């Protein structure tokens, strides 16, 4: 059971907290209905994404065994059988889709279906196409961020979507940059590495970071209400520092695992808390 839990990558569940982003930004976290529907979105995405992680590890088992860290994953190391992983993936995937159907949250069903479709396409073809593989992985972050708002019927700002998309591309391309730097371009641990160069990946993550900062400022101007424009803009400061500190990890080559960076860097955690505090004051004061 422990190995099965490990295979669903609990550390990566933190990404599913994005479903609460829209309700937070709109000030609807005090609305019990919005919180309930966002919580359903969180549970559904956790189940569905866990199912995709299992399938991913099954398909990549040969390459994972060549990776210095991934070789210790339950399936790659042989601690979890492929048969049991497949059965669990089917159960989790069905549960993730069935939950919003039971509550008639059809917008959420559409988002989850889009996520599942992209994951299938990624596993079959898209993971081996340069740039498209990064776009697909980044879209997972965007769909998570949209899920909570759509489930709760909250209007989503286009600038919010662009901030999320650019930030996601920054993290994902930074991860690929570190993989390229640490494991080379031979593609033994990931086929798509053969189609990249270190300079191109650096252009992707640096430009994505710049776009994320610009889009965030534009979004903060949009959400600033009368008398609180300065407070909305002030939240851009910790956001910028978080991205710059994360960029240091990318440049050092130790951002292969984004969740480990976030959970292991106290500076990033403090800045995120500071950002959350400023944002909460803006929303609820």
UniProtKB/TrEMBL annotation:
<keyword id="KW-1133">Transmembrane helix</keyword>
<feature type="transmembrane region" description="Helical">
    <location>
        <begin position="150"/>
        <end position="172"/>
    </location>
</feature>
<feature type="transmembrane region" description="Helical">
    <location>
        <begin position="12"/>
        <end position="29"/>
    </location>
</feature>
<feature type="transmembrane region" description="Helical">
    <location>
        <begin position="199"/>
        <end position="218"/>
    </location>
</feature>
<keyword id="KW-0812">Transmembrane</keyword>
<feature type="transmembrane region" description="Helical">
    <location>
        <begin position="90"/>
        <end position="118"/>
    </location>
</feature>
<dbReference type="GO" id="GO:0016020">
    <property type="term" value="C:membrane"/>
</dbReference>
<keyword id="KW-0472">Membrane</keyword>
<protein>
    <submittedName>
        <fullName>Unannotated protein</fullName>
    </submittedName>
</protein>
<feature type="transmembrane region" description="Helical">
    <location>
        <begin position="124"/>
        <end position="143"/>
    </location>
</feature>
<dbReference type="InterPro" id="IPR000537">
    <property type="entry name" value="UbiA_prenyltransferase"/>
</dbReference>
<dbReference type="InterPro" id="IPR050475">
    <property type="entry name" value="Prenyltransferase_related"/>
</dbReference>
<feature type="transmembrane region" description="Helical">
    <location>
        <begin position="35"/>
        <end position="55"/>
    </location>
</feature>
<dbReference type="Pfam" id="PF01040">
    <property type="entry name" value="UbiA"/>
</dbReference>
<dbReference type="InterPro" id="IPR044878">
    <property type="entry name" value="UbiA_sf"/>
</dbReference>
<dbReference type="GO" id="GO:0016765">
    <property type="term" value="F:transferase activity, transferring alkyl or aryl (other than methyl) groups"/>
</dbReference>
<feature type="transmembrane region" description="Helical">
    <location>
        <begin position="267"/>
        <end position="284"/>
    </location>
</feature>
<feature type="transmembrane region" description="Helical">
    <location>
        <begin position="230"/>
        <end position="247"/>
    </location>
</feature>
